[in-house]
């Protein structure tokens, strides 16, 4: 119902004015929050290193034991027959942007080391350990995990040390 008197128009305007101001403030706050959260940077170096690590640890075609009958993958069980550097190089290649060293230690095996892109790893590891920042340097991530080592004659306990070096760009 539209008021016809001047008093009625002023009363309606005074009723809607606070609502209008509150609506404008709410729209401005939502726009500011949307802009703030959409412009945040993501640390892609950490994300890339972590996804690389998870791919090594959980992929049944790399070093993790995969049951031949069921196809089930057992993370934390390292298949000694698949623990070879050629497998890593065939999967990840030698792109020169990310490299790793995997060290397997256990009671039933001697210490074994395999590399993905060994030349890049050895070239940029000193920069990563020192913590040099900027282009031409590298970042480092190390993970030490308790694992079970699957051998043809049985299983034993061990540790897997994964060191990942990623070049800064």
Q: In words, what does this structure look like?
A:
The protein is α+β, with helices and mostly antiparallel strands and 169 residues long. It has 2 domains: 40 residues; 124 residues. The protein contains 4 helices and 6 strands. The chain has a 6-stranded mixed β-sheet. The longest helix has 33 residues. The protein is elongated. The protein starts with 5 loop residues before the first helix and ends with a strand. The relative contact order is 0.14. The model has no long low-confidence stretch (mean pLDDT 86).
Number of DSSP helices?
A: 4
Percent range for β-strand residues:
25-35%
List SSEs in N-to-C order.
HHEEHEEHEE
Distance between the termini: 66 Å
Rg on CA atoms, Å: 29 Å
* Largest sheet composition: 6 strands, mixed
**In percent, how helical is the residue content?**
40-55%
Shape: elongated
How many beta strands in the DSSP annotation? 6
Average pLDDT, all residues: 86
Q: Strand order of the main beta sheet, please?
A: 1-2-5-6-3-4
Uncertain residue segments: none
Look at the helices and sheets and give the structural class.
alpha+beta
Number of structural domains: 2
């Amino acid at each position: 119902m539209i008021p016809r008197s001047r008093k009625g128009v002023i009363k309606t305007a005074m009723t809607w004015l606070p609502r209008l101001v509150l609506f404008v403030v709410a729209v401005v706050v939502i726009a500011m929050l949307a802009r703030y959260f959409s412009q945040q940077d993501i640390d892609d170096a950490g994300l890339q290193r972590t996804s690389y690590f998870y791919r090594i640890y959980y992929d049944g075609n790399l070093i993790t034991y995969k049951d031949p009958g069921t196809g089930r993958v057992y993370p934390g069980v390292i298949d000694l027959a698949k623990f070879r550097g050629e497998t890593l190089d065939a999967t990840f290649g030698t792109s020169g942007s990310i490299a790793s060293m995997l060290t397997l230690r256990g009671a039933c095996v001697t210490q074994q080391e395999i590399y993905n892109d060994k030349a890049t790893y050895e070239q940029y590891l000193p920069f990563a350990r020192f913590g040099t920042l900027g282009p031409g340097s590298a970042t480092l991530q190390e993970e030490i995990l308790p694992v079970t080592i699957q051998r043809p004659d049985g299983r034993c306990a061990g540790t897997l040390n994964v060191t990942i070096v990623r070049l800064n760009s």
